Amino acid sequence: MFALSIFFFFFFTPSLSSNNIILFGDAFLSASSIILTRENNCSYQPPLQTTALSSVGRAFFEKPVRFLDPSINATAFSCSFSFTITKTNSCPFGDGFAFLVTSNASSFSLTDGYMGLPPGIQASSDQDSYFAV
Fold first, then answer.
1. Using one digit for the tens of pLDDT, what is the confidence trace for 62-113?
2. Is the preceding peptide bond at 14 cis, omega within 30 degrees of 0?
3. For the Legume lectin domain, which residue ranges apply (predicted)?
């Protein structure tokens, strides 16, 4: 239901910038990192406003990434990244994290739950297909 701040360190050529990353929700760039959620003071929760602590962010690489080399029928894509999820005593909750490959970045939920994936919806075409880890 809630997410903690997750910091990413990607190494791209060209460099990580708003020109090559599409950000959704609460995600933002900070130096060489993508921060997906707001930093919240979880020790204070306004009455009847549990959504005030909720924070969801997505980041997608803007350009298509060649995933399959049809000439040899093999994947031509590799990815290496590191991330940190830091639990604090005042914020002991979070939904999770998913690495996603999709053909349509705008078709995914920007709300809590399902880690941004469509809840129980079948892809209607090859253009809406995805896989996530």
1. 877 777 777 887 776 666 767 776 666 666 566 677 777 777 776 666 665 6
2. yes
3. 9-133
Beta bridge partners of 56: none
- DSSP annotation of 40: -
| pTM as predicted | 0.61
Distance CA 126, CA 106 (A): 15
Type and span of the H or E element at 28: strand 28-30
Confidence of residue 60 (pLDDT cuts 50, 70, 90): confident
C-beta separation of 110 from 58 below 8 A: yes
Q: How far is CA 8 from CA 52, 89, 132, in A?
A: 24, 22, 17
